[in-house]
Specification:
The structure holds two protein chains of two kinds.
Chain A: E1 2-6, H1 16-23, E2 30-35, E3 42-47, H2 55-71, E4 80-84, H3 96-101, E5 105-109, E6 112-115, H4 117-136, E7 140-141, E8 147-149, H5 150-155, H6 158-161, E9 168-169, H7 176-185, E10 187-189, E11 192-194, E12 205-207, H8 212-218, E13 223-224, E14 228-237, E15 252-262, H9 264-285, E16 289-293, H10 303-312, E17 316-322, E18 330-340, H11 342-347, E19 350-351, E20 359-366, H12 367-378
Parallel strand pairs in A: 7-14, 13-19
Antiparallel strand pairs in A: 1-3, 2-3, 4-16, 5-6, 8-12, 9-12, 10-11, 14-15, 15-20, 16-17, 17-18, 18-20
Chain B: H1 2-5, H2 26-40, H3 46-49, H4 55-66
Classes of the chains: A alpha+beta, B mainly alpha.
Chain lengths: 387, 68
């Protein structure tokens, strides 16, 4: 059944993407949800047959999401640090169909894709460029697990601020009777795995949503002798409901991060140097991009306040690229962030001789998104890619 | 400020700065901004929010907005 909902007021332009993304979490029965981008005041969605009774609740939920975005929202003029136009015309259509036809992209399910040899080669090449940036920032290379302690994400307030992204990692309780029961009764159906009640152990780990939390966890309780910079390429996981699509928005993706921890003044200097290096790198890729101030999609718990703070202090900048086939939409391929002493306080680490807790900053690139931006700019023929 | 940050008034000194006490963190800062706006019926522009980082700056900005 198709449902139309007229909103009490317009969705502010900068919040359209976030508004739609959050609506998808109102009910699993919602499909094909769209906001009329012309009037910004009408939402349409399809609801499963038999779920019509949920419509009033969904309508209230839509208004509630709108209110939470509007309630303490301040008008912030986004600040642009850099903006460039590529010297080559963009690839006019979505590369997806051709990449699938050539066996370079395979979808295993929503948000889960495999890449073929050409795209893996491109991703490795991009990563070499990012490692060169890391080297200029004196970053040491590290490797981290795919899962991270749930306690770490709780201490860093990730579980409370971004519950919509969380993918819990559990296992079966160590009990022979439980294992035998699971083995006998486990079944797979349309809606996933059915497991016997109480067979799973309480989750102590989560599939890591970022790379940098591993660094903060590693530094927990330490007093650093001097500022520290590390880099790692890691698997990251963010469940993004029905907005997961192509290489634009994955559940399971790779991220190269460069992370700094040290005194406040050094953190600011590092961040500025990082911005300059990112600009040089992006220019060398000859892609169209903009580095612009942004906020994280805080889902609950003082959403507007935290987002306003982030915007006011310009703590987060996104590197956004256009999607030429999509009628003006853009995609963030990376972000450059300052956290002040938030993580230093949360995990209790400091730098010797510096007041208070350590400050942190980081830059992260979503590897599959950079690959996608590259294809959208330079096309699908590697012979014509810039050297 | 003490009421909003839920701290003893003695902690709100002339030299107090953001992060000078645990309660004046990012969430506390935005709560303070909203409370000041409500108390004095004023509105801080987005960019101004990042300037209100000390007791002195807050007093100065509120006075300026009230035309004092």
């Amino acid at each position: 059944m198709k449902v139309t909902k007229d909103l009490s007021c317009q969705v502010p332009l900068p919040f359209i993407g976030e508004f739609v993304a959050r609506l998808n979490y109102l009910s699993p029965a919602i499909e094909q949800l769209v906001l009329d981008t012309a009037n910004r005041q009408t939402v349409e969605f399809v609801i499963d047959d038999g779920s019509e009774a949920l419509v009033p609740m969904i309508h209230r939920g839509i208004e509630s999401v709108l209110e939470s975005i509007l309630s303490k929202n301040r008008e912030f003029q986004p600040r642009v640090l850099a903006k460039r136009e590529s010297s080559v015309p963009p690839f006019p259509t979505s590369p997806m169909e051709e990449m699938v036809r050539r066996g370079e992209i395979h979808s295993f399910g929503p948000g889960r894709v495999g890449l073929g040899p050409m795209l893996v080669g491109l991703e490795n090449r991009i990563d070499r460029d990012l490692l060169a940036v890391a080297k200029k920032l004196d970053a040491a290379q590290y490797r981290f697990p795919t899962v991270i302690g749930a306690d770490v994400l709780h201490q860093c307030r990730y579980l409370q601020s971004f519950p919509q992204f969380v993918t819990l990692a559990s296992h079966l309780s160590e009990d022979m009777e439980n294992l035998n029961r699971f083995s006998r009764e486990v079944s797979i159906g349309k809606h996933g795995l059915t497991v016997p009640d109480d067979s799973l152990a309480p989750p102590t780990t989560v599939l890591s949503p970022t790379v940098c939390f591993h660094v903060y966890s590693w530094l927990k309780g330490m007093e650093l002798e001097a500022p520290r910079c590390v880099t790692a390429l890691g698997h990251c996981h963010r469940y993004e409901s029905k907005t997961m699509s192509g290489l634009e928005r994955l559940w399971d993706f790779h991220m190269r991060e460069i992370v700094f921890a040290g005194d406040g003044e050094s953190a600011e200097q590092w961040w500025a140097a990082c911005v300059d290096l990112c600009v040089s790198l992006l220019d060398s890729w000859n892609i169209t991009y903009e580095i612009v101030s942004a906020t994280d999609p805080f889902f609950v718990e003082g959403y507007s306040s935290v987002a306003s703070y982030q915007a006011a202090f310009e703590l987060k900048y996104e590197i956004r690229v256009p999607l030429p086939y999509s009628n003006g939409r853009t995609m963030a391929i990376g972000s450059i962030n300052r956290h002040h002493d938030f993580f230093g306080k949360a995990m209790g680490f400091s730098q010797k001789g510096a007041p208070g807790n350590a400050h942190t900053a980081c830059v992260g690139f979503g590897m599959e998104r950079v690959v996608w931006a590259w294809l959208c700019t330079h096309g699908l023929n590697p012979d014509r890619w810039p050297s | 400020m003490a009421k909003t940050l839920r701290v003893d008034e003695s902690l709100i000194t002339d030299s107090l700065r953001i992060n000078g006490i645990p309660a004046w963190n990012s969430l506390g800062h935005m709560a303070l901004v909203v409370a000041l706006e409500k108390e004095f019926t004023i509105r801080f522009a987005g960019a101004k929010v990042a300037k209100l980082t000390s007791f002195e700056a807050i007093v100065g900005e509120v006075a300026a907005q009230l035309g004092a």
